[in-house]
């Protein structure tokens, strides 16, 4: 018993040391912020829009790959007119290798709708993994360049006033985002989207609403590589544009300055749903699919270490392995007895081994011929004849109680083995044993 307790104590100490050195430390529990994905039913998700379109018979897809896979999964050669909806800033920022495939795919005749958190600052855009290069990535996706019209409230001294003295624009934006992250509004601010005039995308839309949980700026867009940039809607209080449209080859790009515009919490308010329906109707062809960019919001089909280590199945498997290890450690571990090197071989094993060897190398027909030779020699020895294996059918027919049918069957079997054909050796052996018993 004492040895078991010592073993248990050492096992627990080894486990504690392993946990201290290897296992990740659990962070303090925080309220989960939902993200704009097609399966998210929380307030910031797009599940309502996804299911609504699905119920209307419109082809929809959850895209969980990098943009390099767009031409492969939605090949322009197989048809264009697809609509890709991407909410930004991304949880997985766009890579340089994705920019050209995305722009080429749009130029082939497809549409990109970017719901960009510019004039609103949704709570999901201010999380721990926020995109510090959001503006550069947005320009790479849309081809638009944005300039701030008004700045958000300056952070207080205790919130990092010195951060605004950073030299680089990226550094200033990162420090400002860090400051804004601690400035969550007590009540979310609401912003409107009002059409600038008549346009098919805004038919039946008098206003749409967006929600911002953090302070936000106002922005104007410029198209360095395009001569035509339409400003379709504005925010009524500031008169700043919040919806832009431009051509990209045979395709088109639509950028909304509100990242929360089509989320579950506001889709049913005012004319948000009507605006979404107009965009889908106008920018998707009959064979096109509405594609939700879930990959860049963390819902990926490729390897995701956070999803892997956060999977409850992994935790359960590790607990089972730990339990089995403890059972093994604490179980009875008896020493193996010394092996006896001398193992006598009995006659039965010898015969079995020899018979097995002969069975592997001797053909059935040859074995059958030898069985008949042995049988005829036994009979010939009884008669005082030379044991040369020659048949004695005439003697068997005249001087034994064997019937003509039994003798004919023996002759038939003898003819088969003599011609080299395969016979059932067990049946032949039993038949000859029975004949020997009759002759005895």
- Number of domains as seen in the coordinates: 2
Find the structural class using helix and strand composition. alpha/beta
CATH top level assignment of the largest domain:
Alpha Beta
Mean pLDDT: 82
Radius of gyration: 43 Å
Distance between the termini: 72 Å
Largest sheet: 9 strands, mixed
- 3D shape: elongated
Oligomeric state of the chains in view: single chain
- CATH architecture term of the largest domain: 3-Layer(aba) Sandwich
Strand content: 5-15%
Helix count, DSSP H or I runs of 4 or more residues = 14
Strand order of the largest sheet: 1-11-2-3-10-9-8-5-6
Low-confidence stretches: 151-168
Please provide a written account of the structure.
Residues 151-168 have low confidence and may be disordered. The radius of gyration is 43 Å and the shape is elongated. It has 2 domains: 30-152 and 170-309, 3-Layer(aba) Sandwich (Rossmann fold); 347-439, no CATH class. The chain has helices spanning 2-21, 47-55, 70-73, 96-107, 134-142, 169-181, 272-283, 305-309, 312-330, 347-361, 364-383, 393-399, 404-418, 425-439, and strands at residues 60-63, 83-88, 111-116, 145-150, 189-195, 208-212, 218-222, 229-235, 240-248, 251-256, 290-293. The protein has 14 helices and 11 strands. Strands 1-11-2-3-10-9-8-5-6 form a 9-stranded mixed β-sheet, with helices on both faces. A two-stranded antiparallel sheet has the order 4-7. Helix 11 packs parallel to helix 14. The two termini are 72 Å apart. It is of the alpha/beta class and 440 residues long. Helix content is 40%, strand content 15%.
């Amino acid at each position: 018993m004492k040895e078991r307790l010592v073993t248990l104590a050492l096992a627990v100490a080894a486990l504690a040391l392993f946990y201290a050195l290897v296992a990740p430390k659990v962070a303090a529990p925080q309220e989960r912020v939902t993200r704009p994905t097609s399966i998210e039913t929380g307030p910031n998700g797009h599940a309502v829009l996804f299911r609504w379109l699905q119920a209307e018979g419109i082809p929809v897809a959850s895209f969980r790959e990098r943009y390099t896979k767009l031409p492969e999964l939605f090949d322009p050669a197989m048809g264009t007119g697809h609509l890709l909806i991407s909410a930004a800033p991304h949880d997985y920022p766009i890579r340089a290798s994705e920019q050209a495939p995305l722009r080429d795919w749009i130029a082939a005749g497809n549409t990109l709708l970017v719901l960009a958190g510019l004039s609103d600052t949704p709570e999901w855009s201010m999380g721990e993994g926020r995109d510090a290069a959001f503006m550069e990535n947005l320009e790479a996706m849309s081809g638009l360049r944005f300039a701030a019209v008004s700045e958000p409230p300056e952070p207080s001294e205790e919130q990092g006033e010195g951060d605004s003295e950073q030299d680089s624009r990226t550094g200033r934006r990162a420090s400002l985002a860090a400051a804004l992250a601690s400035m969550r509004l007590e009540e979310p601010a609401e912003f409107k989207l009002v059409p600038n005039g008549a346009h098919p995308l805004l038919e039946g839309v008098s206003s749409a609403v967006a929600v911002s949980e953090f302070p936000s700026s106002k922005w104007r867009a410029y198209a360095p590589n395009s001569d035509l940039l339409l400003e379709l809607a504005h925010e009524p209080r500031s008169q700043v544009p919040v919806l832009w449209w431009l051509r990209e080859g045979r395709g088109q790009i639509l950028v909304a300055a509100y990242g929360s515009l089509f989320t579950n919490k506001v889709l049913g308010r005012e004319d948000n749903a009507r605006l979404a329906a107009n965009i889908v109707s106008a920018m998707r062809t009959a064979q096109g699919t509405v594609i939700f960019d879930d990959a860049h919001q963390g819902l990926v089909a490729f390897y995701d270490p956070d999803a892997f280590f956060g999977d409850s199945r992994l935790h359960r498997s590790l607990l089972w392995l730990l339990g089995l290890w403890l059972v093994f450690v604490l179980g009875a571990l008896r020493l193996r007895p010394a092996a006896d090197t001398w193992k006598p071989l009995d006659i039965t094993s010898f015969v079995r081994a020899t018979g097995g060897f002969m069975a592997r190398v001797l053909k059935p027909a040859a074995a059958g011929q030898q069985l008949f030779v042995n049988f005829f020699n036994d009979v010939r020895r009884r008669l005082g004849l030379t044991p040369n294996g020659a048949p004695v059918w005439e003697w068997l027919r005249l001087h034994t109680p064997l019937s003509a049918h039994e003798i004919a069957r023996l002759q038939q079997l003898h003819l088969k083995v003599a011609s080299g054909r395969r016979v059932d050796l067990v049946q032949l052996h039993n038949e000859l044993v029975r004949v020997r018993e009759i002759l005895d």
